[in-house]
Specification:
The chain is 40% helix and 15% strand. The protein is an alpha+beta fold. It has one domain (17-74). A 3-stranded antiparallel sheet has the order 1-3-2.
Length: 82
Amino acid sequence: MKRGEKQVNKEKKRPSFATVRYLLKKYPWLTEGGLRHFLFHMDENGLHRAVKKMGRRILIDEDEFFNWIELQSKRPTNGGSK
């Protein structure tokens, strides 16, 4: 190792990517329409951090997806009944 270089011991965890179809099978509480709605609006709702595209295929990082869900439950809502 050269002088001044830092050795990085942190091992970066690989993301666990899943297709939309796989997530729908694995988590039956997800609906296809709901998930596709979130994906359509991913740039506005912040889900883009969990999504990678390979051609037409959409891959979703499961850990990031569930982090995003947690953030949605903590986000203040606008509106409601008056």
